[in-house]
Design goal:
The complex is a heterodimer.
Chain A lengths: L2 E5 L2 E5 L6 H7 L8 E4 L2 E3 L13 E9 L2
Parallel strand pairs in A: 1-5
Antiparallel strand pairs in A: 1-2, 3-4, 3-5
Chain B lengths: L1 E3 L2 E3 L3 E3 L7 H11 L3 E8 L20 E4 L7 H12 L6 E4 L12 H13 L3 E6 L3 H10 L5 E2 L13 H10 L5 E3 L5 H9 L4 E4 L1 H4 L4 H21 L21
Parallel strand pairs in B: 3-4, 3-10, 4-5, 6-7, 7-8, 9-10
Antiparallel strand pairs in B: 1-2
The chains are: A mainly beta, B alpha/beta.
Chain lengths: 68, 255
């Protein structure tokens, strides 16, 4: 089934092969990056990256940038 | 040795990682500064543009302690949220509480900073609030149990140096936790002055990143902080209104 999620504030069509947060990160080629994931406004700990991606989920991918 | 909670550091310079002209200059500046604590901001990743290099991912993370800030927050709740995001990276348990209360001066919101510090302590964070140089606020933050106090020397990025040395001295005198002068440092003399006043450390960013030669300035700041610390420990001479000759007044050679 076609799933459309809100990804970092933009509408994003998820291909059927992507079923979990981990698979989404790998699909986006972010698997080896230092980042934090928020799913439906809840912070996901790394051990929960097997959480399923559902239609209309709101996903935020956050990272560290330079700052003082 | 600078100790924050149970963490010990041999450097008293905490370095920000924003606004460097290039990653190469930044890497060299960080290396020569010998800083062990680096600050970062937490932001939404720009995943829709081609992969952009990320400074943090180029660092040997075993060598540095990350100090994420809560910049961008204007309430305690927003700051706690950003701190929790940072902690979920699994890379850090310290947080610089930074809640801006005035968009023009970028001065911290004292009420929200106090509230956020209390909430973050309850959550088990190592809490380092960036505060104004208010002596009573600093005392109240200490009483909450924060792990260091970080009063500003002057507004962020202003480079004006230490505007209120009296307040900083009073904060240092009363504090039972390390005092790290954060924000407003412009030149090595400011950093040295902070240390001579008895500060335990200095956190700076723009003074290095916006210097004509950031690498050289990073080294200058390292040396200034060491000099200021030594000067403080050595105990400076008293200040007098009138001259006192350094050479003997006896045995003057007759004309």
């Amino acid at each position: 089934m076609e799933k459309t999620i809100d990804l970092n504030g933009k509408s994003y069509a998820v291909i059927p092969e992507v079923e979990t947060v981990q698979q989404l990160l790998e699909h986006l080629e972010l698997g080896d990056r230092i980042l934090i994931v928020e799913k439906n406004k809840e912070i996901l700990q790394k051990e929960h990256y097997d959480a399923p991606i559902m239609d209309r989920d709101q996903i935020e991918i956050i990272h560290f940038v330079g700052g003082g | 040795m600078l100790q924050i909670a149970d963490k010990k550091f041999s450097s008293r310079l905490l370095l920000g990682t924003g606004k460097y002209p290039s990653f190469e200059a930044q890497k060299k500046a960080v290396a020569v500064s010998e800083a062990e604590i680096l600050t970062f901001a937490v932001r939404r990743m720009n995943i829709f543009e081609a992969s952009q290099p990320n400074f943090l991912e180029q660092l040997d993370l075993d060598r540095y302690t990350l100090l994420p800030n809560t910049a961008g927050a204007s309430t305690a709740e927003e700051a706690v949220h950003i701190a929790k995001l940072a902690k979920a990276s699994g890379l850090c348990d310290m947080v610089k509480v930074e809640i801006i209360g005035c968009s023009r001066s970028l001065l911290p919101d004292p009420v929200e900073t106090l509230r956020a510090s209390e909430m973050l302590l309850e959550e088990g964070f190592i809490v380092l609030p960036y505060t104004s140089d208010d002596v009573v606020l600093a005392r109240k933050l200490c009483e909450l149990g924060v792990h260091a106090i970080m009063p500003g020397a002057a507004p962020i990025g202003s480079g004006k140096g230490i505007l209120n040395p009296l307040n900083l001295s009073l904060i240092i005198e009363q504090s039972k936790v390390p005092v790290i002068v954060d924000a407003g440092i412009g030149s090595p003399k400011d950093a040295s002055y902070a240390m001579e006043l008895g500060a335990d450390g200095v956190l700076l960013n723009t003074a290095v990143s916006e210097a004509a030669n950031p690498v050289m300035m990073a080294e200058a700041m390292k040396l200034a902080i060491e000099a200021g610390r030594l000067g403080y420990k050595a105990g400076r001479m008293p200040v007098r209104d009138y001259a006192v000759a350094s050479s003997p007044l006896e045995g003057l050679v007759p004309n």
